[in-house]
Specification:
With 313 residues, this protein is of the alpha/beta class. It is 49% helix and 14% strand. The protein has a single domain, classed as Rossmann fold (3-Layer(aba) Sandwich). It has eleven helices and seven strands. Strand 4, helix 3 and strand 5 form a beta-alpha-beta unit. Helix 10 crosses helix 11. The N and C termini lie far apart (59 Å).
C-alpha cells in the first residue's frame, strides 16, 4: 500500500470509498455505463474479511467528470492506469481486482501497469472480444456492433432501453431496470460513447496468455452479451484460471444473482489463502531441510533410511 499525496486526489477523482478491514483488499470496478453502486449487493459481504475499495471510472458515476478527456480515455489504457494507481495507493496484502464486464479487461491491462500491486483477478461476466471471429463466437456480428455504437452516439437513452433485456433478465424488477437506466444517463455522454467503442471493438484475446496471476472467470449460463463459449475460451487461454458458471440470465449477475457471486468470489479467496498456506509450508520445509518441497522430502527419507541402516550395523 502506498498511501501518499496522491491518495486524496484519487479519492476525489474516482469517488473512492474504502470500507471494512482485513489482511487483503478487494478493489471493485463497475462495467460500462454503470457506477460503484452496482456492487452494493456483493461488496458489503466481504467487509469483515478484507479492505473493500469501490471506485467510479472516470466519466461515470460520482467521478470528477471534468477530468475526463478523450485524449487520455480514448481506449481502455487510461482507465487501466487509474485502476493501477488505486491498487498501488489503497491495496493492502493481496489486492484482488473484481471487475465486471469491460472492467475485467481494464483490470488485465492495469496488471501490466502495477504488477506488484495486483495479486489476482475476479472477472465477472468478462469478454476479451465481443466480435464473432471464425470459430470464436464473441456474441455479435460487426454490423450489429456498428449499429450499437451509432445508436449510443445518437441517443444513449434509447440504446439503454434496447439493451436492458440483454443486461438484465427479461423478468428483472422494474427498480433494477430504472436504476441501470439512471446510471447510464448519469454518465458523461462522450465518455460513455468512447468507452463503448473501446469495449465493443476491442480485442484483447492475445493478452490473456500473458496474465500470470490467479484468475476467477465468473460466467453466466445465459448471457447474450458474453456467451458461455467466451468463458470457455478464457479458461483455456489464461495460464492460471478457475471457471465458475452460475445460473443467471443476463449480463449483470452481481445485481440479479448476488449470492452466487458472493459464493464464487468467497471460494476463490479461500483458494488463494490455501495456496499461500501451502507455499509458506513448502518454504518452511525448504529452510529446515535445505532443499525445496518434494526434493526435501526425498532427501529426508533417504537420510532416514541411511540412519536406520547405520543403526543396524
Amino acid at each position: 500500500m502506498l498511501l501518499n499525496q496522491t491518495a486524496p486526489l484519487l479519492q476525489h477523482r474516482h469517488n473512492l470509498r474504502v470500507l471494512g478491514d482485513g489482511p487483503d483488499t478487494l478493489l471493485f470496478v463497475h462495467g460500462l455505463g454503470c457506477d460503484q453502486a452496482m456492487w452494493r449487493f456483493v461488496a458489503p459481504h466481504f467487509e469483515g474479511r478484507a479492505r473493500v475499495v469501490l471506485m467510479d471510472l472516470m466519466g461515470f458515476g460520482g467521478s470528477r467528470q471534468s477530468d475526463w478527456n478523450e485524449a487520455q480515455y480514448d481506449g481502455l489504457e487510461g482507465h487501466a492506469r487509474d485502476v493501477a494507481a488505486v491498487a498501488e495507493a489503497f491495496g493492502k496484502g493481496r489486492c484482488v481486482v473484481v471487475g465486471h464486464s469491460v472492467s475485467a479487461m481494464i483490470g488485465l491491462l492495469a496488471d501490466a501497469h502495477a504488477p506488484g500491486a495486483i495479486s489476482a483477478h475476479a472477472m465477472v461476466a468478462p469478454s476479451p472480444c465481443y466480435l464473432n471471429d471464425g470459430a470464436y463466437l464473441g456474441g455479435f456480428e460487426r454490423y450489429v456492433l456498428d449499429q450499437t455504437l451509432a445508436l449510443i452516439e445518437a441517443d444513449a437513452q434509447a440504446w439503454t432501453q434496447a439493451m436492458m433485456p440483454l443486461l438484465l433478465a427479461p423478468d428483472a424488477s422494474d427498480p433494477l431496470s430504472r436504476e441501470l437506466t439512471t446510471a447510464f444517463c448519469r454518465a458523461r455522454p462522450q465518455a460513455l460513447a468512447t468507452l463503448a467503442r473501446a469495449t465493443f471493438l476491442g480485442d484483447l484475446r492475445d493478452r490473456l496468455a500473458g496474465l500470470h496471476k490467479p484468475v476467477l472467470v465468473l460466467q453466466c449460463d445465459e448471457d447474450m452479451v458474453a456467451p458461455r463459449g467466451v468463458g470457455d475460451f478464457m479458461a483455456a487461454t489464461l495460464p492460471d484460471c478457475v471457471l465458475e458458471v452460475i445460473r443467471n440470465p443476463g449480463h449483470c449477475p452481481h445485481l440479479t444473482s448476488p449470492q452466487a457471486c458472493i459464493d464464487a468470489i468467497g471460494r476463490f479467496l479461500d483458494q488463494l489463502e490455501s495456496r499461500e498456506g501451502s507455499a509458506a509450508s513448502g518454504k518452511a520445509e525448504a529452510e529446515e531441510t535445505g532443499q525445496p518441497g518434494l526434493l526435501g522430502r526425498l532427501v529426508s527419507g533417504f537420510r532416514s533410511r541411511v540412519t536406520q541402516a547405520a543403526t543396524g550395523l
